[in-house]
Amino acid sequence: MAPSAHPSSSPLLTSKEEEKYADVKWDELEFALVPTDYMYVAKYKQGESFSEGEIVPYGDISISPCAGILNYGQGLFEGLKAYRTEDGRITLFRPDENALRMQTGADRLCMTPPSPDQFVEAVKQTVLANNKWVPPPGKGALYIRPLLIGTGAILGVASAPEYTFLIYTSPVGNYHKASSGLNLKVDDKHRRAHSGGTGGVKSCTNYSPVVKSLIEAKSSVFSDVLFLDAATGKNIEEISTCNIFILKGNIVSTPPTSGTILPGITRKSISELARDIGYQIQERNVSVDELLEAEEVFCTGTAMVLKAVETVTFHDKKIKYKTGEEALSTKLHLMLTNIQTGVVEDHKGWMVDISS
Amino acid sequence: MAPSAHPSSSPLLTSKEEEKYADVKWDELEFALVPTDYMYVAKYKQGESFSEGEIVPYGDISISPCAGILNYGQGLFEGLKAYRTEDGRITLFRPDENALRMQTGADRLCMTPPSPDQFVEAVKQTVLANNKWVPPPGKGALYIRPLLIGTGAILGVASAPEYTFLIYTSPVGNYHKASSGLNLKVDDKHRRAHSGGTGGVKSCTNYSPVVKSLIEAKSSVFSDVLFLDAATGKNIEEISTCNIFILKGNIVSTPPTSGTILPGITRKSISELARDIGYQIQERNVSVDELLEAEEVFCTGTAMVLKAVETVTFHDKKIKYKTGEEALSTKLHLMLTNIQTGVVEDHKGWMVDISS
């Protein structure tokens, strides 16, 4: 349930903080929608370029019943986070990467995207407009959700004649409630993506199809689902909303971005950090057999950042992996979150300060 | 372009007809949106049952930016047609089949559908409210588009807490402009669906991913695209929006509905009609090699009904098939459209008279 936004339900806030912060119980934040004050909207009409876009009050949008997104799933989304640092700055984590990924996705779904510059500028404007919804340091982040959707009316299957680029935000806590590691189920029935499809871009069409698998797994007390490749059913691909890594010896392996898994920005960043501290990174097909023999397994994604996997269940086998303070996953998680929250200096050029 | 709805641009109509018919240039109808007067809307909220639904003026709907359909593609659609017969009745073609298909799709996408009875009743109400938009006999049909979409706000990937069941309509002419047969391109790069995915239900997520392939083919003067199976790339599956049949000798073959192609209602009806006149029907894997050696090829779907394929191009091979008056496709097309338009008596129980 989303935290309540009633003033009376937030005894923790002082009158000074009320100016700086929205009235949210920051310690109770989950990964659920807490509507903020403003959103960004820009439009593209066939044959024109994207409108400049504007910050408007957050609220329902008006859309044709015949819109491409409602009928044919012509839509992309992105997800990124804004952080408030101890010294009071507001920063974004690698927004340029999200901007570029939207370009690739728009090409696959035959849409015209906003330019990367417009994308990043729009994200900045949206976060600054919702400044007081960025959680206090250490309490979470402001999750930012850019959408590019076909809002033009189209009866036959084709690209819509109008697109809307929209950004809304929500303060969030942890994606998974479990404080310990994830308990994954390997789904050997449903598949997420196939070669020649859209599994490699952040298309809305990759997500509703995994919900059935996710509900089945959660009803059996699993945290999430690991999908296998559609071609052979032998290699691991992706969790419903994040990438996967396995560790054995000095080698960290993760499935390659060859069109059926999302090229995660956290995935890319964690690979770089692991390499920095002496691990060998292999992007290659990883079989279920290898997964079951790994020493550590962990997942990465914008919403969860990095989460250790405690167990994997495949048919009747259940494997337990190393987690905890001595685990590589714990070390990498700390390295990345320290950069993201400004606890250590960012030598990577990943953080964008938007408060100055 | 949609036909104009300006009164001044329709010199064909007499004042008497103006009462019975909307102001449309019926002879110029294409398969494009011509908005009609009314639509049907019903809502479902988690833990409740579907609201009764009501006929409201056709127009934009209001939706949360965080809705499941906009972010995660949680949506299904259906397509069916209403016909006006020579003796003035208005009929529907097998609406119960669409109602049942929406049930199956809703189960796959974890949505609660309206009951089959509510579905059919809603279709009837919507058509009767738009009575004057049903084209005159022989001029086309009123295309009916039911949607079931996740309109509730949901931030993490999950089933939306609210669904909307909506029906809108549009008078339509032919789906493909070509009066002769289709010129299909076999796409050996993109795939449409995979086993364990959603290719067997009418999910919006199956459609935006094929647009790229369709645009590429149309820019090379092909009419449409034929997809191969994702597992082997050897068998034919489906055109972007319709099913496919091949004829050799006395045997009509069509790919099986095993989860990667849509179980078409026209497909099912045409199979039955072909069987009635002595052909053997085989639902089985059909290889590209067999396609290239067939005598006739044809496609079926609600929008196009049945259309002969004149040529298929696979890599650098281009095969020409039998079409025209002597072709089986022409015979089957006539058999089905005669039933649909009331020219011959319906002994199948397929047509539902909603005007009485």
UniProtKB/TrEMBL annotation, chains A, B:
Q: Which domain of life is it from?
A: Eukaryota
Q: What SUPFAM superfamilies has UniProt attached to this entry?
A: D-aminoacid aminotransferase-like PLP-dependent enzymes (SSF56752)
Q: Which Pfam families does the entry link to?
A: Aminotran_4
InterPro entries assigned to the protein according to its UniProt record, in alphabetical order: Aminotrans_IV (IPR001544), Aminotrans_IV_CS (IPR018300), Aminotransferase-like (IPR036038), B_amino_transII (IPR005786), BCAT-like_C (IPR043132), BCAT-like_N (IPR043131), BCAT_family (IPR033939)
The EC number(s) given in the record are 2.6.1.42
Sample GO molecular function, one term? transaminase activity
Report the enzyme's class at the first EC level.
transferase
**What keywords were assigned to this record?**
Amino-acid biosynthesis, Aminotransferase, Branched-chain amino acid biosynthesis, Pyridoxal phosphate, Transferase
Name the chemical reaction catalysed here: L-valine + 2-oxoglutarate = 3-methyl-2-oxobutanoate + L-glutamate; L-leucine + 2-oxoglutarate = 4-methyl-2-oxopentanoate + L-glutamate; L-isoleucine + 2-oxoglutarate = (S)-3-methyl-2-oxopentanoate + L-glutamate
Q: Which cofactor does it need?
A: pyridoxal 5'-phosphate
NCBIfam families registered for this protein in UniProt: ilvE_II, PRK13357.1
Family assignment from sequence similarity: Belongs to the class-IV pyridoxal-phosphate-dependent aminotransferase family.
Which PANTHER family does the UniProt entry name for this protein? AMINO ACID AMINOTRANSFERASE, BRANCHED-CHAIN-AMINO-ACID AMINOTRANSFERASE 7-RELATED
| Identification of the protein by name | Branched-chain-amino-acid aminotransferase
Q: Which organism is it from?
A: Camelina sativa (False flax)
Lineage of the native species? Eukaryota, Viridiplantae, Streptophyta, Embryophyta, Tracheophyta
Q: Which gene codes for it?
A: LOC104777934
